[in-house]
Amino acid sequence: MVKKAPVGDADDSGMTVGAPKRYAAGIPAIVSTLRHTGRQMGVRRGARTLLKVNQKDGFDCPGCAWPEGEHRSPIGEYCENGAKAVAEEATLRRVTPEFFAAHPVAGLAGRTDYWLGQQGRLTHPMYLAEGAAHYVPVTWDEAFGIIADELGALDSPDEAAFYTSGRTSNEAAFAYQLFVRAFGTNNLPDCSNMCHESSGSALTETIGIGKGSVSLEDLHRADLILVVGQNPGTNHPRMLSALEKAKRAGAHIVAVNPLPEAGLMRFKNPQRPNGIAGRGTALADEYAQIRVNGDLALFRALNRLLLEADEESARAAAPASGPASEAAAGPAARGTVIDHAFVDEHCGGFEEFAADVRATPWADVLAATGLPREQIERIHERVLGSRRVVVCWAMGLTQHRNSVATIREVVNFLLLRGNIGRPGAGVCPVRGHSNVQGDRTMGIHEKPSKAFLDALEAEFGFAPPRAHGHDVVDAIRAMRDGRVKVFMAVGGNFVSATPDTAATEEALRRTSLTVQVSTKLNRSHAVTGRRALILPCLGRTEADVQATGTQFVTVEDSMSAVHASTGTLPPASRELRSEVAIVCGLAERVLGDRTTVPWRAFREDYDLIRDRVARVVPGFADFNARVRAPGGFVLPHGPRDERRFPTATGKANFTVNPLDVLRVPPGRLILQTVRSHDQYNTTIYGLDDRYRGVKAGRRVVFVHPADLAELGIADGEAVDLVSEWTDGVERRAPGFRVVAYPTARECAAAYFPETNVLVPLDSTAEVSNTPTSKSVIVRLEPTSA
For residue 8, what pLDDT band results from cuts at 50, 70 and 90? Predict the structure, then answer.
């Protein structure tokens, strides 16, 4: 069996490849920002809009979830890619009913994500009837009726799945999960399942809360920051300002990444003179080009070195001879490297962890990491010289089979020296979408806690379902097997975000109805059930006026800060409705008098939703009052605030994490899927990747020159990428240009969503069930003429 990815209308004939950059931002970022905003919004309108991005009286950027902090630039609290995200949403281009009349769905299915996204904002609710070739306009009442009829005809509420993108506001997310649970299911897959689910799983087990423990101020105060499996220059560019500030305060930075990323080498801050005319700020003091999936081995090695250093310090401090000296020399000796007081008072499982780590073979560490031992020991010396340590990571750590174990080992590393609950130290999983963390806080979770469901029942007077629902991977399986018949998505581009593209498309086409709540056209509108609806919604940039007046929404960033977001632009169409209005209107139509939830009142006044959130979700007391303060408020975090760890043991847990080296068969490579610099998640802004030297093309695969020589493949050659997995299915992404690139040996990288077809649906992380998009075994085959 062969599964191929569609090439669509991509034209890479004009592609050029040059040398990768060694710095991020600077004048090129300014030029790119002006070009994108002017082309999409117009110069004057674009300038006015950008002045409101991430300001205390403005709107939250629809891009990443990096926090703003207390002190914000009045002229530019955004990055180049944030400006692209705003421009894409606030574009003057429109996708009208006339567009759909001219473009059959089959034709749209053959287009690329880039072409689809460039068509503009959706303006009207659209309906695709069974057997029809074109979407046609419908009224909102007709659309709600179609959904209500389909949901009402199901044999069980569990035959529907309700997906959520991370950009949904807190108010919309709370209303959505309330509707879904009142309907009778916990089938609430969301984009967290595909990105930071591994982080949440590992952190909940080890420290008791699945969120980061640091603030921006902690980053600024850190002695050492490890940036692991993350490319902030493209994916969270405003993080570079925080790293620059930390660096200027004396912090050391260690970058751990298979690819040499420009943003971790040098930052030319566009708001500083030396970022315009000078050399900017060098960031990484040590750049460890680790082999893909070698991070667990690296942190095990660092933990072994810390334990050995502690024992050595104990021996050095012991008397020269006698029983005390003999006792101090044993493995239980206490030195000055490990924070034994913290470990004794706040942690459990230390002895089991320490015994396992002491036995770590150096041969396995070196094979897994691909790093020289001398470099690992240099990093260890930096750790020894640092009292306050922060570890930051993103999807480079979360999308492997052993991702949860890897992040648990990171926590072990921080616990050893008391680097959780200390100013300037802690865990920092850097989220992607602007409110992906807030959605989970609001209850978007297929495995809700008993406490949350109890609070929901007490507040709203109905019994929510208790059985766990489907996450993303399980929802695809359920659609494939006919167990889910209706699929609804609020935001996102499900088809292009998910693994195993052919399997996902086949699953969606087996449903009776697919519903997409969207701002712009994307591939998920062209891969449908027997019937389909597109419901156009307001963007974050647009004014939201309801019966009681102008509304605002709230979001939660990567560091647990909750703040308001108020759009100002006129809506792209008079037919648009807010996500809150769509969810509440649909709930009213579907549920009727089955609940006493005041859906209409919620739709008219978002304060009423926030009042209910305050009574259901811990940390949101006085929500309406506190969020109206400039900058909002920070949610409580037990490990950070008081070294209180709400785990099953009541303590922070050291864990034992087996080291399994990912061995590559001869002639194969480990592929990681990555973003280009002209991309945010599945939204393609352009066809360039300025930092990696690629222009006017996306179908490229980056491979080390020495690996190409061994494979007998030339730089610039056209190849197909073929993934290999245990199910015997051949998954093929055709027509890629090979780019000789200084990545780690035996590794390769290529852009998603083009390579999602290569990620097997059933290849997922243990515990979290996250797709293994960062460790796919592939072979390169010459493309057939």
Answer: very low
